[in-house]
Specification:
The protein is built from 5 helices and no strands. It is an all-alpha fold.
Length: 102
C-alpha cells in the first residue's frame, strides 16, 4: 500500500472518529518519516550482521536485532534446519556472504 493510500485510510479513520487528532497527527508523521506499516524495526533491508552478538558470522545476532527474537533461538532454528532438512547451513552461509556487517 502506498503512502498516499495509507494517509487516505488514516484520514477516513479520523473522520469516522476512530482516531483522535493527536493519534492522526502522530500516525501521519510516522508515515511521512518512512515508517510504513510492516517496515518497522523488522524491515529486512535493515538487516546487518552483528559485531557484538556473534558466534561465527553474526547472522543470528543481526536477525535477533531486527526481529526482536533472541539470537539463541535463531541459532537453534538454524541447527534444526541443518539436522532435519539439511539446508540451514547453506542459508546461513548465504546470509553470511550477502548481509553486510554493522
Amino acid at each position: 500500500m502506498s503512502v498516499s493510500e495509507e494517509i487516505k485510510r488514516l484520514h477516513e479513520l479520523h473522520q469516522a472518529g476512530a482516531l483522535s487528532d493527536d493519534e492522526f497527527a502522530a500516525a501521519k508523521a510516522r508515515l511521512l518519516n518512512g515508517d510504513l506499516p510492516g517496515a518497522g524495526s523488522g524491515d529486512i533491508s535493515r538487516l546487518r550482521r552483528s559485531r557484538t552478538d556473534r558466534w561465527l558470522g553474526g547472522v543470528c545476532g543481526g536477525l535477533a536485532q531486527i526481529s526482536g527474537v533472541e539470537s539463541w533461538i535463531w541459532r537453534l532454528l538454524f541447527v534444526m534446519f541443518v539436522i532435519t532438512f539439511g539446508f540451514g547451513l547453506a542459508i546461513y552461509i548465504l546470509l553470511w556472504i550477502f548481509v553486510p556487517e554493522e
